[in-house]
Write a structure and sequence with these properties.
Elements (H helix, E strand, L loop, with lengths): L4 H13 L6 H33 L5 H26 L3 H22 L11 H12 L1 H23 L13 H42 L1
Length: 215
């Protein structure tokens, strides 16, 4: 009997997120991180499509559009490279690398596009969740503090006339902000739901194993 499409899909997914790890904990983190990389690819694609729609509607200028699209486009090879790196083990270093690259690049996007009014601010939610879940809770706290300080710095520089954003998303800024908030809520909510369900499944599996051993 041939396996069903669902069985094939599950088998492909298990192979896609599998890692060569030295212990059970690293295996668990590796699977979570690789799942996150697939979500990250979908998130970057959704962000790029948002800019495409704004451009088609005439709400973004040509130069601003191409610069804006370059940011999510860069995440596609980044996510692929991090997934391959994680599949070889040593998940913690790649999770830290991804978190900080994401943090710096989104901060740069904020600097380039609209400063304090930039629609890129909600994107840092994803960075903080990833860092706190897979790298270290300390990273999440550090990034939160740095983000607050970054906002204050931009406000002060703008107040004294030292800084002004070189580019603007344009009339579609409010639409982009709403779209990015929704994308981050769906991505982060989906990831945390998967994390909770996976933890519950692992706990039930251990409980069944313990019960069989006791019997």
């Amino acid at each position: 009997m041939k396996p069903s499409w669902r069985t094939k899909l599950v088998g492909w997914w298990e192979r896609a997120i599998a890692v060569r790890a030295q212990d059970e904990e690293e295996t668990r983190l590796g699977r979570l991180f690789n799942t996150l990389m697939f979500i990250s690819t979908g998130t970057a694609t959704a962000i790029a499509l948002t800019f495409v729609i704004l451009r088609l509607l005439g709400l973004m200028e040509n130069v601003a559009f191409w610069v804006a699209v370059a940011f999510p486009a860069a995440y596609l090879p980044l996510s692929l490279a991090c997934l391959i790196w994680a599949k070889r083990g040593r998940v913690k270093p790649v999770a830290s690398f991804y978190s900080w690259v994401n943090f710096v690049s989104v901060s740069l996007a904020i600097l380039v596009f609209d400063g304090l009014r930039s629609p890129a601010w909600p994107l840092q939610l994803w960075t903080i969740v990833v860092a706190g879940t897979l790298a270290s809770p300390a990273y999440a706290l550090q990034m939160t503090g740095l983000l607050a300080g970054y906002g204050i710095l931009l406000a002060l520089l703008g107040l004294f006339g030292v800084y002004a954003p070189p580019l603007s998303v344009g009339p579609g800024r409010e639409i982009a902000t709403i779209a990015f908030v929704m994308i981050m809520l769906v991505s982060t909510g989906g990831f945390l739901t998967y994390l909770n369900m996976r933890s519950l499944q692992d706990a039930l599996s251990r409980l069944r194993l313990t019960s069989r051993e006791l019997e």
